[in-house]
Write a structure and sequence with these properties.
This protein is of the alpha+beta class. The two termini are about 55 Å apart. The relative contact order is 0.07. The chain folds into five domains: about 5-90, Zinc finger, CHC2-typedomain (DNA Primase, Chain A); about 120-235, DNA primase, catalytic core, N-terminal domain (DNA primase DNAg catalytic core, N-terminal domain); about 240-360, 3-Layer(aba) Sandwich (Dna Topoisomerase Vi A Subunit, Chain: A, domain 2); about 365-420; about 445-580. The model has no long low-confidence stretch (mean pLDDT about 90).
């Protein structure tokens, strides 16, 4: 679907990128720009600059650059059209378009998406056929309804060696693609279905496309309880959270996200009206998953299984989340129960009460450190105090620091002055902004970059460039100069935020714009400056041409070619002397 550029630019002009970005992450003012922790890489200090004047953002570390549409598109994992529609709704521009996020016809790896789309229909047909009777009985016994099964698109793989594989082969998918997708596997006897006799929980990308499965055994005798899809080009476990595409709206609405371990936990929570919930599928929590969570809310509740493995997973998730500035709350369930078991046995109200009374991080750590501690034993008491002092020293929140200190004094009956004497003194420090690191530039590189900088903001400079039509030696920068010139010729003006809309799919040009805009040169310039840049570029090109002639002359064995090259060198020298 295409939206007219005039409408796109109207929407962009009615919206302020600073207002939008600040809804997703905190921004700090530094001079005329705003800075925040970049959400597009594993960032720990503010390295993303947001310009109110230019209506663009640029990360000085990873190079992420764009306008308001690009930010929303990448942050929310939505299409460009969706991002434009979102902005139109915010600024009150009516945009009557029908969105289709599931269109996979133009996607990279479309064969894999198509294979999963067909396999999902196959599995769903199975569970709704006579073959699915036992599987449905199992799900009914787990207190799921037909509505739940339909909503979560639960399917069934049959006890058949290669039924799905043959079906997909008949649809003209190659064995190579079937093996690549992870739907099929092979041995010396040929290619066959990888999933058999399992209840199939489909795994979706943020757009709702099926990209894998979590297959659960439901018949006695199957020792592997869960089997997850292997990693493919469209499914990476470290970048995935179960139910993310459904939970997104509710999490943003409630400004809270709950993280669990398995599909049944998520499904059970949904049956009692808790929609803002995702699951890790038992994998170790990753920095990529942290970034997905951060895009939904900074208010996070960890509700993993109540066993030792769940405790280990909780600790790992805490470690990763705190790295990106998220301090989670924690629910620990009793008797080794998982959320699914707990809700079935204790009901909706008691589970919601546990969520409302989730431990804050310091409470949780206190509980962990108190395990197996005898407060009457001096060594145990001393070790506990040392552990808590280490945690307090990590706290940046002054109020939480003071509350925790007082709690430690109350619990241990140790004099507060003694504890204070062991703590590091907190010094107030300003947030350090990551500044762009630039290599030393020679006069030619400086001329190219400075010329492009002023071309991005001044029509007069574009006209000077067009008049002289100089060759820019750097491929990416030459392409950017062409794009700037073409934009001006088509629209009659230059606006970097609008240019970014047109080149959004050209990663090299977008990156080049980020590099150039981050120069932050003075706004004013003289025509003489621009002419100097153009002359320096021309001089560089002539020097390259001269060097090329010299090298060809030195390496040539052809007398006639040598004479021709020598004449070119003489002509070149005469032209240079005339220009001087």
């Amino acid at each position: 679907m295409r939206i007219d550029n005039t409408v796109i630019n109207e929407i962009r002009n009615k919206i302020d990128i600073v207002d939008i970005v600040s809804n997703y992450l905190p921004l700090t003012t530094r001079g005329k720009n705003y800075f925040g922790v970049c959400p597009f890489h594993d960032d720990h200090s503010p390295s993303m600059s947001v310009s109110k004047e230019r209506q663009i953002y640029t990360c000085f570390t990873c190079g992420a650059t764009g306008n308001v549409f690009k930010f929303i598109q990448d942050y929310e994992h939505i299409s460009f059209v969706e991002a434009v529609k979102k902005c139109a709704d915010i600024c009150g521009v009516e945009l009557n378009i029908k969105l289709d996020n599931n269109d996979i016809s133009n996607k990279k790896n479309k064969e894999l998406y198509e294979i999963y789309e067909l396999s999902q229909k196959f599995y769903q047909n199975n569970i709704n056929s006579s073959y699915g009777k036992k599987a449905k009985e199992y799900l009914y016994n787990r207190k799921l309804t037909d509505e739940d099964i339909k909503y979560f698109e639960i399917g069934l793989s049959l006890d058949n060696y290669d039924m799905l594989t043959k079906l997909l082969q008949q649809k003209k998918y190659s064995d190579k693609d079937l093996l690549k997708s992870g739907i099929s596997t092979s041995n010396e006897n040929g290619i066959y279905d990888i999933y058999r006799n399992r209840i199939m929980f489909p795994l979706h990308d943020p757009f709702g496309n099926v990209i894998g499965y979590n297959g659960r055994a439901y018949l006695e005798g199957n020792t592997n309880k869960y089997v997850n899809s292997k990693e493919t080009e469209i499914f990476k476990k470290r970048d995935f959270l179960y139910n993310y595409h459904r939970a997104r709206a509710s999490a943003r609405d409630k400004d809270e996200i709950i993280i669990m371990e398995g599909p049944m936990d998520v499904i059970r929570a949904n049956t009692i009206g808790i929609k803002n919930v995702v699951a890790t599928l038992g994998t170790a929590f990753s920095s990529s998953q942290c970034n997905l969570i951060r895009r939904l809310s900074s208010n996070v509740i960890l509700c993993f299984d109540g066993d030792e493995a769940g405790l280990k997973a909780t600790k790992g998730a805490i470690e990763e989340l705190t790295k990106v500035g998220i301090t989670p709350k924690i629910v620990r369930l009793p008797d080794n129960q998982d959320p699914d078991d707990y809700i079935i046995k204790n009901g909706k109200d008691k589970f919601i009460d546990r969520l409302k009374n989730a431990y804050d991080l310091m409470e949780f750590k206190e509980i962990l450190y108190k395990q197996n501690i005898d407060f009457k034993n001096p060594n145990d008491l001393s070790n506990y105090i040392k552990s808590m002092i280490k945690e307090i020293n990590e706290l940046d929140d002054d109020i939480l620091r003071e509350v925790t200190i007082n709690k430690l004094v109350e619990d241990t009956k140790v004099d507060k002055e003694v504890i204070l004497s062991k703590l590091n003194k907190k010094e107030k420090t300003e947030v350090e902004i990551t500044k762009p690191k630039r290599k030393k530039r020679d006069k030619y590189e400086k001329s190219v970059e400075n010329l492009l900088y002023y071309m991005l903001y001044n029509v007069e400079v574009i006209k000077l460039y067009d008049e002289l039509i100089t060759h820019i030696p750097n491929d990416r920068y030459r392409s950017l100069a062409f794009q700037i010139s073409a934009f001006y010729k088509e629209h009659g003006y230059i606006e970097v935020a609008d240019l970014l809309t047109e080149v959004m799919n050209d990663e090299d040009t977008v990156k080049a714009i980020g590099e150039i805009t981050s120069l932050n040169l003075k706004n004013s310039y003289t025509v003489e400056e621009i002419e100097d840049y153009l002359n320096n570029i021309k001089e560089y090109n002539e020097n390259c041409r001269l060097e090329k002639y010299k090298n060809e002359l030195a390496s040539s064995d052809d007398v006639e070619q040598k004479i021709a090259l020598a004449n070119k060198l003489i002509e070149f020298k005469l032209r240079s002397e005339e220009s001087d």
